[in-house]
Amino acid sequence: MKKKYLDICQSITEQIRSGRIKPETYLPSENEMVKEYQASRETIRKALNLLAQNGYIQKIRGKGSMVLNTSKFDFPVSGLVSFKELAGKMSEPPQTILNGLSLGEAGGFIKKELQLEEGDLVWDVLRTRKMGGERIILDRDFLAEKHVPHLTGDICRDSIYQYLEKELNLNISFAKKEIIVEEPTDEDRSLLDLDGFQNVVVIRSHVYLNDASLFQFTESRHRPDKFRFTDFARRALH
Predict the structure, then answer these.
(1) Is residue 187 over pLDDT 80?
(2) What residues contact residue 52 under an 8 Å CB cut-off, 6+ apart?
(3) Are the C-beta atoms of 41 and 34 separated by less than 8 Å?
(4) For residue range 74-105, what is the model confidence (pLDDT) as tens digits?
(5) Which domains does the chain have, with CATH numbers?
(6) Environment class of residue 143 by beta-carbon count within 10 Å: exposed (0-12), middle (13-18) or buried (19+)?
(7) Predicted local distance difference test score (pLDDT) of residue 235
(8) Which of 173, 185, 223 lies closest to 203 in space, CA to CA?
(9) Which of 61, 66, 218, 49 is nearest to 138 (CA)?
(10) Which residue from 49, 105, 118, 149 has the least number of CB within 10 angstroms?
(11) What's the pLDDT score for residue 183?
(12) Cβ count near 145 (within 10 Å)
C-alpha cells in the first residue's frame, strides 16, 4: 500500500508543476494541511521534507514552506564562460552591480592563491549579479596587475574577459575549480537577496593564460535555488 505522505507529496508536486501553486508563495501551515489532507502532523512533515529534498520548497524559519521557482539557469562547471556570455542565453536581461574596485598590494591569502611576490599589486573587483529583480550571485575577482595593468568601472560592469581578450589580447586558457556549499557570510547577507536560504554554493577558480601563467583567483557565491550546475562526462575506454 502506498504511504500517504507520498500521495500528499505527489499532489503538491503536481500543483506546483501545473502552476496552480505559484513560485515564491507559501504553502498552507502544517495545521491547515493536517485538516486538508486528513493526515497526522508527522505525515505532513514527511511530505514537506520530501518536497524540500526534491527542490520544490524551502523551509524558512518563522515563515513556513516557500515554493521555489524551479526554472534555473544552467551554469557550465567545466567551461570558462563569462557572465556576459551566459547572460546572452537568458530570456530576461541581467544586471551587474559594481560594489567595489581597487588596486593594492596583495595580502597574504591572495599572494598565496595567485603565487605573487612581495610587493606585487592585485585588482580586487566585487560585483553583484541581479536577475529577475533579485541579487543572486556575488562575484569577487582578484587579478594580478602584472597581467592586467588597467581596469575601470565601465569594464567591470560590462565584461572583464571581453576586455582582456579583445583589448589586451590575452589568451585565457583553463581554470582549476572547487565547488563547495557554505553558510552565508555577513557580506553575502548584505549584498544578496537570500530570502531565508541558509547556505550558498561557492565556486573558487584559479584561472590561467595559455602560457600557464596564473592571473586570476575568483570566488563566485550563488543563491542555491536559481542555478543548476551542469557538466558533461565521458567514461574512458579501458
Answers:
(1) yes
(2) 58, 59, 65
(3) yes
(4) 566 666 666 666 655 555 678 899 999 999 99
(5) 2-65 (1.10.10.10), 81-224 (3.40.1410.10)
(6) buried
(7) 64
(8) 223
(9) 218
(10) 118
(11) 94
(12) 18
